[in-house]
Amino acid sequence: MAVTDISMLRERRNKKKRDKLIKKLIIVAIAAAVILIIVFTKDMWYPKLDGILTKIPTPGNTAELAEGNFPLSIEGGADYQIKSLGDNIAIVDDSHLFIYNSNGKLINSAQHTLSKPIIATGNKKTLLYDLGGNSFSLYSKYKNIYKKTTDNPILYACLGSNDAAAVVVKSDKYPSELMIYDENGKNIFNYRSISRIIDVTFNADNSGCYITTIGASGGLIVSKIIYYRFDHIDYDDSGSPMPVWESENLETLALSVKVFGDDNIIMFGDTLCAYFDLKGKLIKTYEYERELVDYSYSSSIGAMIFRNEERRTAELVTINSESGAINEKSLDHEVLNLQVSGDTVYMQTRNGIESYTATGEIVSSVELDTEYDDFLRFDNYIYLLGYDEINRITYN
Fold this sequence. Notes:
By secondary structure, the chain is mainly β. The chain is built from 2 helices and 32 strands.
């Protein structure tokens, strides 16, 4: 009986082994067949899947609002400004200048009495000035560097990367006067313009600046760029500094002029965008066919958003800083605000935030439960600007 039981047991074990082997062979055969089908039909399904994958939000992006020190409360409502400042952010409201780190921790604050405070930031410093007033000050993260007053109302001011300040004022004799101050507040250059100065941009090494003026010609508004150097100045018979070059007049109201990449300058106007080399030669213009909503730039690309009122959609137009190539991309929704960072275009819609490549391909997106007035992309975060508070989400 014992012998018979052992034989039966062995037979059962052998049958189980055979059954397992057959199952494994069947599974391997099915897997091989699936792989072959995938390989041979790749051209049919991969493009569709690739399109889907590009729309999947990048891991780490989340619409969850930051906690801890956020939201940052703003006194006085919507009349505040926020700028990136090195690794920190600078905020000005109707009574104070605040410096926060990226986690919302207050580093410094300074009270002001300016009627219309405006901030401009460089790499490490903040310029605070009174638009239409007579006062401007330079701040580091921790203290006030200097404070100055002007004899005439301030029209515009900005900072260079070396913390040199450009201050434009209006006078009785001239529509505009420009004064350049070094990082210690010493006046190093002055220019009186017979046209209205609307923008000043420092060159790459801060040895000079591109001055943008607007005037009239034939009953039309025209804009041009004038380039001056501070390290070598020639003067005319009247004692006025002579420019290195002047660009031709363009029939547009210039909104902003920036150094674009290593070898070019870009002008965003109200009717066209212009592309110059560093000698002031006009290379290319792009005339608008629709209403300009917003514009932004980086060292690699410039971007503009236009509104299609009839369809309630938008069009993204980008310009490559090296080649000057222009790319147009129609979107199926409206865009409220735009910011370029590196080679990525970030846009605020009514539903959230989206990011696109320079050629208009969507990279990622997040939906927001609350509507915001504007946003600031900085480091790996999006700062969401509400009426009286600032929130933050993670966005790589």
